[in-house]
Every structure is written in structure tokens, then in C-alpha cells.
Design a protein that fits this description.
Shape: globular
Order of helices and strands: HHH
Strand content: under 5%
Helix content: 10-25%
């Protein structure tokens, strides 16, 4: 039983139960292939040209902003710099969406949308599979 006397706890509006995931510990991905692997394959090859990592304090009260993630901005700057690209060069993206607002903030911090306009981009269909900046076209986290 929680100290507030209510169980289960509910998110605070405007967020609903399905806007928030359970607490998790992170994620990673790995792509491995041989340089000469299956040259007859019709699969499109992917070359990783940049990667980045960032960090920030875990608690919200210790952060510089609650509407921007320093870790995302740091990682994006490093990855874009390594790859020699800018946000406008990206065709689609899969971003963390553990909370509805997380995807919106991440897309703004990655430079896909102006700060404060990520939610509008979702509402306008710009992040849809057929939008001008498809985001999480594989249904987000699994």
C-alpha cells in the first residue's frame, strides 16, 4: 500500500495509464555482419556512420529542464558530428517512447522539430509512417 492510501497509483493528468511505462534500466542495439556477407542478398545494407552517448541526472528536480533531455542533446551532437549529417538529413527515426511525452521531447532534442512543437508534429501526422519525418514506425518499444 502506498502512503497516499491509493493503489494503484495513477499518472497525473494530462497523462493516462497507457502514456507511461514501468521503470526500466535502459536499452541498446547491436548490428553485426561480415563485410562480404551474402552479396546476392536483396536486403539493403546499413552502414553506421555515427553514434553518441549522453548522460544526465536521474531525478527530475536535479535537471536543468523538465522539457528537454541533456543526454539526448549530447548524444545527438556527437552522432551527427561523427556522421557529418544534420537532423534534416535523417529520413526516419526510432526514439525512446517510454512515456508519451518522452517521444515528443526526444524528437525536439534530436532537432527534428522546433522546441515546443513536437506534440503539434504528432497531431498533424508529420511523424506518421507517411509523414515528412516518420518516428517509431515499428510501433515504438516492444
Amino acid at each position: 500500500m502506498c502512503r497516499c492510501g491509493r493503489w494503484p497509483l495513477r499518472p497525473t493528468p494530462p497523462f493516462g495509464l497507457y502514456d507511461c511505462s514501468l521503470v526500466t534500466d535502459g536499452a541498446a542495439f547491436f548490428v553485426l555482419t561480415a563485410e562480404d556477407a551474402d552479396t546476392g542478398s536483396t536486403a539493403r545494407r546499413v552502414r553506421i556512420t555515427g553514434s553518441g552517448h549522453g548522460g544526465d541526472t536521474l531525478t527530475l528536480h536535479g535537471r536543468e529542464s523538465q522539457t528537454s533531455f541533456a543526454a539526448t542533446r549530447q548524444a545527438a551532437a556527437t552522432a551527427y558530428g561523427q556522421a557529418g549529417v544534420a537532423p534534416g538529413d535523417i529520413d526516419l527515426a526510432e526514439v525512446l517512447d517510454c512515456f508519451t511525452i518522452t517521444q515528443i521531447i526526444n524528437t525536439e532534442d534530436l532537432g527534428f522539430f522546433e522546441a515546443g512543437r513536437g506534440g503539434d508534429a504528432v497531431a498533424e501526422g508529420r511523424t506518421a509512417r507517411d509523414g515528412d519525418m516518420p518516428i517509431n514506425t515499428f510501433e515504438g518499444e516492444s
